[in-house]
Amino acid sequence: MSNNAEEIKSRYGIRGSPTQGLVAGTIAFFAGFAAVALFGITVNKLAPLLNLGIVERGWLIAIPSLTGSLLRIPFGAWVDSVGGRKALLTQLLIAMAGMIGLILTLDAILNGAITSRTMGYALLMLFGAIAGTGISIFASGIAYVSYWFPRKRQGFALGAYAGFGNTAPGIFTAVLPYALASLGLIGTYVAWLILLAAATAVFAAIGYDAYYFQLVKKGVNRTDAAIMAKGLGEELIPSGSLARSLRASAAIWRTWLLVIMYFTSFGGFLALTAWLPTYWTNYLSLSLAMAGLMSGIVYSLLTSLVRVPGGWFSDRWGGERVAIASYAVMLAGSVIMMSSSSFALSALGVVVMAVGMGVANAAVFKLVPKYVPEAVGGATGWVGGLGATGGLLIPPAMAAFVAAYGQEGYRLGFAIYVALAALSIALGAILQLREAKRSAGSG
User: Fold this and answer.
1) End-to-end alpha-carbon separation of the chain, Å?
2) Which of 401, 362, 377 minimizes the C-alpha distance to 283?
3) 71 pLDDT more than 70
4) Residues 6 or more apart whose Cβ sits within 8 Å of residue 301
5) What is the pLDDT of residues 309-353, one digit of tens each?
6) How far apart are CA 187 and CA 400, in angstroms?
7) What is the pLDDT of residue 230?
8) What 8-state DSSP symbol labels residue 42?
9) Domain region containing 202
């Protein structure tokens, strides 16, 4: 680093580094994203207490993804105007409030203070939605990390951020059955709240904004801050306005192709993480502990971890090409799941789906800074927010197949994933053709 850069850092008290930003963002995302597993396992304990039917279970499983998906849009874009630190801390605190509400509600149900089935279900839905705010950290965290890293390293950085952060639902889904057995329902949620509070404290201590935002907060005007930040190695400079960032990214048609593709892979990932415990226990009669292992480790954790090399693949071979290949793998896994009535075949199908979806998730977000460099936060909000609504919409749709076809509905419901994967392959091909024409035109 040049003497001038060191002088700027010293003069304005600039703190942090790309590596530190990546670690801090990943910790915050890991803690908030665990809410995906909020009701996937515990719904089996709650359903008998409130006499919930299969469709009601589906909506309860999906509800954290409602706020976790939709709030990605404003929070992701908000980073462009205030930086990631304020956005992520706000989201973590809201998620903690939701967890406290859930603990109080569960305690009231178990102690008989709440006897109304309708009230108990409504309060669980409400506080589950609030706790789901933690899931929305994905979008603001993507923008937060993107501003720390140059474009040539963003595939790896974002793959590592999302890959390791995404392990939270898998780990929690696998651990929850054992936590329930040893700590009980209330104790499990209290332990979860403690972890969330600890992660919030760690992020508050080490999570600094990228250089541009720090300089602006020190009183430097935005034009000079942009020049100084670039001198420090920051490549991406935000548009500076939440509304402008959303408008600019929404005006680019490629943003909407990425939304649909992300709905398939990441929205689909959220949905399956929440739905699979019900699939394993009700369709193949696995124990709750085994269902947690298959859902959390075999599927969710694998999907998350392959996202890390998926980012590297995208840096090396291009996000468009990698996306097409990964959605083809996901399609193959979905066909296997549609055909399965045995544990062995379902296990194979889940693994194939996990690999395809994990790599696809990395490929899509490699393309976001590439196509919308001037409004990364806004694009991240649209893609991450609307794309993640799959986590809200797909579980009730899967439940509807079961309601319509009985036990066979558990496998037939995977037709949803077959159709989405096929559509995403087509959209990836459109982006690939456009990239080929652009390269030919500039060659």
Assistant:
1) 34
2) 401
3) yes
4) 167, 170, 171, 174
5) 887 888 788 888 999 999 999 999 999 999 999 999 999 999 999
6) 33
7) 87
8) T
9) 12-438
Return the pLDDT at 242.
Answer: 63
Q: Which amino acid is at 160?
A: A
Task: Please check whether residue 20 lies inside any domain of the structure.
Answer: yes
Q: Is residue 404 part of a domain?
A: yes
The predicted model scores a pTM of 0.76
Mean pLDDT to the nearest integer, 20-45: 88
In a domain, 92, yes or no: yes
Quick one: CA dihedral 316, 321, 323, 324, positive or negative?
negative
99: CATH: 1.20.1250.20
Q: What's the domain count of the chain?
A: 1
Q: What gap in Å lies between CA 151 and CA 156, rounded to an integer?
A: 10
Residue 3 lies in a domain: no
Query: Residue 333 corresponds to which tokens in the numbers above?
Result: 């896994």
Contacts 24+ apart (CB under 8 A), 429-433: 429/324, 430/257, 431/254, 431/257, 431/320, 431/323, 431/367, 432/320, 432/321, 432/324
Q: At what angle do helices 343-371 and 319-339 cross, to 10 degrees?
A: 160
pLDDT of residue 374: 66
Q: What are phi and psi of 210, to 5 degrees?
A: -60, 165
Q: How many residues does the chain have?
A: 443
Read off the tokens for 207. 């999570």
User: Is 287 strand, coil or helix?
Assistant: coil
Residues 257-277 pLDDT 10s: 999 999 999 999 989 988 998
The single residue listed with the structure tokens 């739905």 is: 275
Q: Is the pLDDT of residue 417 over 90?
A: yes
